[in-house]
Structure formats: C-alpha cells, structure tokens
Amino acid sequence: MKVQHHLLLCATPSKPLCGDPQLGAASWARLKQLIKERGLERPDRPEGVVLRTKADCLRICAGGPILLIWPEGIAYGGVSPERIERIVEDHLIGGRPIEEWIVAQHTLLPSRCSSQRSTS
Fold first, then answer.
1. pLDDT tens profile 30-83
2. Residue 101, Cβ neighbours under 10 Å: how many?
3. Long-range pairs, 18-25, Cβ under 8 A, ≥24
4. What's the mean per-residue pLDDT of the chain?
C-alpha cells in the first residue's frame, strides 16, 4: 500500500500543556470525517492513502493542538475543526502548505533500512 501522508494530531493529551483537550477532540472528529468524505483513506487511491493517528503528545508544548504531517515534517499549531478543513483542502489535496500556521518543520533523514538488509 502506497502512503501519501501520515497525520499525527495531539488530540487528547493526558497532561494538556499546550492546548484545550476538548478542542483537540473536536479537531480529531473533524479530521476523521474529512479524510473519509474526501476518500483519502482508500488504499487504491493513485496518490496513496492518508493515514491518521491520534497522539497524546508531540513534544511541541505550545500553541496546540498540533497536527504533524509526514513526510514533509510540517507541524501546524492552533489546530481547530475549521483549520483542519483548510489544511486538508490546501495542504493534503492541493499540495500547498499554509505557511502562517506552521510552528515547526522537521526534516526526515533518509531511511537506512534498505541498506541494512541482507542480500543473501
């Protein structure tokens, strides 16, 4: 299965240091709904499937809820159900990150798994 994006949302933190857990839960519900409505979870999608994970903490302890999008490594802050809608439309579907909402960006290192496999 080809994966286009993996979304991690700190939706219901056990120690809410960065945001309102109720806002996180509402954002999670909207994210699930939009991913399903837009057909982004279909395994046969030519661009690849969009995976989603509800996280407790993404260790960006300010401006939450935080939505982290891989493989770009973009972290959006101040996520709300309304922002989720624009992030899905502009970033995931349109390929245009929303610069003013980005609070961090982490570069992925190349995978070493393929070079460590045995060829025997």
1. 999 999 999 999 999 999 999 999 988 777 767 778 999 999 999 999 999 999
2. 19
3. 18/60, 18/61, 18/62, 18/63, 18/64, 18/65, 18/66, 19/63, 19/64, 19/65, 19/66, 19/78, 20/65, 23/65, 23/79, 23/80, 24/64, 24/65, 24/79
4. 86
**Total tally of structural domains belonging to the chain:** 1
For residue 63, give the CATH number of its domain.
3.40.30.10
> What is the C-alpha separation between 74 and 84, in angstroms, rounded?
14
For residue 79, the enclosing domain spans: 3-116
Full-model pTM: 0.83
